[in-house]
Amino acid sequence: MLLNTIQMKSTNNKVTLAFFILLFTSSIAFAQEVIKEKVETVKTTTTTKKQKIDGVVAKVGDYIILDSDIDKSFLEISSQGNSIKDITRCQILGKLLEDKLYAHQAIQDSLKVTDSEVKSMMEDQLSHMIEQIGSMDKVVKYYKKNSEEEFKSYYFDILKEQKLAQEMTKKIVDAVEITPEEVRNFFKSIPAADLPVFGAEMEVAQIVVTPKVSEVEKQKVIDKLNEFKKEIQAGSSFATKAVLYSQDPGSRATGGFYKMNRKTPFVKEFKDVAFSLAEGEISAPFETDFGFHIIYVEKIKGQDIELRHILLTPAITEDALKEAKEKITLIRKRIIDKEITFADAARTMSDEKETRANGGTLINPKTQDTRFELTKLDPSLNAQVSNLKDKDISLPLMDEDQSGKKKFKIITVTNRIEEHTADYAKDYTKIKELALKEKQIKAIGKWFDDKIKDTYIKIIGEYRDCIFTNNWLKK
Prior knowledge:
Elements: H1 2-6, H2 14-24, E1 33-34, E2 42-44, E3 50-52, E4 56-60, E5 63-66, H3 67-79, H4 89-108, H5 115-133, H6 136-142, H7 148-174, H8 180-189, E6 197-198, E7 201-209, H9 215-233, H10 238-245, E8 257-260, H11 268-274, E9 286-288, E10 291-301, E11 304-312, H12 318-336, H13 342-349, H14 353-356, E12 372-373, H15 379-385, E13 397-400, E14 406-417, E15 420-421, H16 428-454, E16 457-459
Antiparallel strand pairs: 1-5, 2-3, 4-5, 4-16, 6-15, 7-12, 7-14, 8-11, 9-10, 10-11, 13-14
Helix pairs in contact: 2-16, 3-4, 4-7, 5-7, 8-16
């Protein structure tokens, strides 16, 4: 039934597998290699008998899959603590074929993946690998390579292919839109007995008071950034400065690197400065809600720019922290004394622009609505609201973000929704999400059907006996 498809109960269903791929496209980096079309999958021995070259089991466009790739995929799954008991070699090969087709078509569609993006991915992945395995030498040995250089070259190709596959999947999915009428028809098509059950949820609001930064502390970081700028213009490395000093945890490890265009969701002030610079230019220090920045534009490619930045956050004095805590405490007292409602206090006194306009109500970043499912609640938020009764207001809490910026807040639970069967009016956002995913699944299924017909695909030997969810054998 329709709901069974959504819940992925049927493992033989093409739509279900497509949904699995949609959700987990980037989950495992398989050991795969790329060759040119001129390489043949057979060779002639002295007896003129044709044999398979070095375990080649399949080819998709210019990409090949080796029998050892399947073995390494099993090893990857096991190393992450997952069971391989019910996974067959045919299923692994099917997933590898899908990855190859995505990457092949991404190239045909001229989707761009830069070397800098791949290098950034590789640095993140290698840090995780070394943390898990123990050292780079052990990573190299694990992948059976002779040197770190050989491994990095090999792994770079894997990650580039993976990124191409991600970009191709994104292109397919982003093109899918859904209308309210389609959502309504989707909901009506689900039998009453199969309607999904949504878990208990809550709605939460908060008021935030941010300690005021003194002009003296602001000037200190402005002077420091100007000093960095002069040193860089004299020959120092911007990337090295970013690694050593930037307080942006999202880009510090990659030397402050970001790639963006005008549609990229960045802070407006940051984008305005970035797109005002010429290639090779360094900005003057400027302020955003995160602190003070300087930007260096490395490359401009049409509508895209590649840049590096350094973020410094001014220090907060003890007096400023004390003043902010006193203010949030007073706001809480006024709400408890019923001088003002929580929502009105948020609108007029909260320093958090994202929630101020709607009375402090938090938006769930995963669903973009106001409800938070209790079983999926962020641990830090859960700790703050778990003991609150309805309409209770927390004591002042101090939060500190990854860059070290501190703020005080008070929180209240404004609504609780018990576990319930899906209701079209009350759960429209969730139902729309399910309907959109089903439509995306169908789009991916159709994409595979069309591209398989138009792409050179060859499966060799005993793997031709596999039963695939997609028509790889073109029967």
